[in-house]
Design goal:
About 30% of the residues lie in helices and about 20% in strands. With about 220 residues, it is of the alpha+beta class. The protein has a six-stranded antiparallel sheet with strand order 1-2-3-8-5-6. A two-stranded antiparallel ribbon has the order 4-7.
Length: about 220
């Protein structure tokens, strides 16, 4: 939200701090968590412009106090050659205005990715239960954090998040009679990733490989 973006010294967004694969991974981690996600304007299409702290005060003394306050707050960072943007400057406001001219490329792909995740969050039965007993997380020590969510009808959804820099294997720990369908692989060409080698279905005891900085979502639904 604005506290993580606008209150940074330069107002830089996650879009400019990490790669595209990590950006998709972060979006899935936020949107499919069992909590209420907070999205900041422009995040849904990977806005690259900063959102810097700006004001429009009429009292000259207040303006100067805000300027000095921002400089003092970020004095340590200024030693690295950065200068705090003037919060009263119209340029600071203009530099922070959203881009509305994107029609294709990664911005459009990210917008589609967010829409897909929101639809999944709203419609998949395994994501409708909010109690703690319906959600389990685990980390295997090799970069993958897994989230398993389910409901009382044994609809099950796995989200496998590989935060590591190398591919990692994960074994589903479910009954082998269960069939899991691949819903999402952020590494696939559909999402402008490096390419996916995953199958469309997996049995409950099978292993699969998650690409670095990728998220894979599988689900088993009761007919």
């Amino acid at each position: 939200n604005h506290d993580q973006v606008g209150n940074r010294m330069m107002g830089d967004r996650l879009t400019t701090l990490v790669g595209f694969e990590t950006l998709k991974l972060s979006a899935a981690a936020a949107l499919l968590s069992p909590y209420v996600p907070m999205l900041f304007m422009g995040e849904e299409y990977a806005e690259e412009k900063p959102f810097q702290y700006f004001v429009s005060h009429t009292d000259p003394d207040l303006v100067e106090a805000v300027r000095q306050g921002r400089k003092q707050e970020f004095a340590y960072f200024q030693k690295e050659g950065l200068e705090t943007p003037d919060p009263q400057s119209e340029k600071t406001l203009a530099d922070s205005s959203l881009s509305w001219d994107w029609q294709e490329g990664r911005h459009l792909t990210m917008f589609r990715f967010y829409k897909m995740l929101i639809k999944l969050r709203k419609t998949h039965p395994a994501l409708q239960k909010k109690g703690r007993k319906y959600c389990q997380f685990s980390a295997d020590g090799y970069g993958i954090i897994s989230m398993r969510r389910h409901d009382d009808a044994q609809n099950i959804l796995y989200m496998l998040m590989n935060f590591g820099n190398e591919s990692a294997d994960y074994t589903l720990n479910e009954d082998q009679s269960l069939t899991f369908s691949l819903l999402v692989d952020s590494a696939s060409e559909e999402w402008q990733g490096p390419g996916s080698e995953l199958s469309s279905v997996y049995q409950g005891n099978q292993s699969l490989t998650v690409q670095p900085k990728a998220v894979v979502i599988l689900a088993a639904e009761k007919s």
